[in-house]
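[job 0417] fold request received: Osmotically inducible protein OsmC
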Amino acid sequence: MGKTINVKYVGKDNSSIHTSLNEATFKVNNIDYSPIDLLISSYASCLMETVDYEARKKGFDSTVTKCEISYEMSDDDSRINSCSIFLFFEGDFDIKKENFLETASKTKCKVGKSLSSDIKKSFRFFYKTMSKACFHK
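[job 0417] inference complete; emitting structure tokens
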């Protein structure tokens, strides 16, 4: 059996989450930090970890410094409709490594692959080197 996450609904749009990996209980409420925010945060964390892992398997460091994800809900507010994903890298990468990082971002993340294929995802990649900053779609 896989990992177990214990979630207790405490009423009035509030839940508490506890896993065997954390000592403190994480609290989620619909006002400050919604379950959708938690899902998107999990996606961003998984995305950065996955890209770094895939790069290290190929023998280089990815140094993903930041991931920002904006999302929009469907018209009836029942599901995520779209995500805009911005990944920021630091380091000198040739075009081959940039393409590798971008492909890994889009295809290897377990959380991203678990999301509905109906969610429209757009990716933008930013690379910062010692001498310049550049943007790729």
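[job 0417] notes: The first strand starts at residue 5 and ends at 11. The beta strands are 5-11, 14-19, 26-29, 64-73, 80-90, 120-128, 133-136.
[job 0417] exit 0
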